[in-house]
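Quick note —
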Amino acid sequence: MRHRLLRSAFISVLAASALASLVPATANAAPGPRPGMAECDEPYDRRETVLNAGQRLAPGEKMTNPTGATELTMQPDGNLVLYALGNPGGYKLPLWNSGTYGNPGAYATMQADGNFVIYRQGGSAQTGGGIWHTATYGDRAEMTPAAKLEANGNFKVIGRKDNEWGLHWSSLRREMTTKICAEDPTHEYRYWFTGDWAQSATVWLMIQEDNNLVMYRKRDGKAIWNSATHSTGFSVLELRMGTDGDLFMRDWMGGSKVVWRANGAGNPGAYALLQDDGNFVVYTKDGGPDKGGALWQSGTWNQG
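Predicted structure written out below.
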């Protein structure tokens, strides 16, 4: 159900364009590793870091998601940026941004009306000066407005706008597992969309807004592999493992339009793995890093 909601929310967000002292509340424990991220399915983790109505992110302030995987930063230049965190003190991978740079002193706030707004320095709901917002204001009094960083790394805003899906605005930047398996009757949605990403000890792998699947190494942010699928003309791509063992990317709106594949067909049960050595590999059902059976690889081992 969760993935069905995300798919419907994806259409809503694509159809809408964004217009022109922090005390986050985090449920449960402090940030830590996500168990099961090397398995086919993401762990069920409902923890969130929350910015409540009336709270703000001042220039230079940030909030971190419960797993320590992502950070939302209100930069001094006025840009609000969601980063994937790598090595402590090292390079951070930009996942999403508000595009409001060039406005030093700007700040972001979660309003009681359900709207999440970035204001120029000195601006407010009373004086104006808004330069970006999520358009989630509304009259549904039963909703509790909040800006949240989810355990999967995504940034979302719950407002007061009438929305049957309950997901009012989202950056659509989910951390996925490092293992991609084919869907089956009990696991129907094991695939990535544009904006989804995963990380191993040394690299990130992300489907970018330009629909290119790119691998970045954590130590310096350098791109070391890509699928060469940028500018495909499609609004959303999906990456999935076929039941026949073929890993491929295709247009989500028109499933027959495949733009990239690893050509592993004929191997039911095959899976893809983003390894700690930096290599992205498709293995046979019984294969693995210590067993062999590689059907395809990015050739990026030990480049991290």
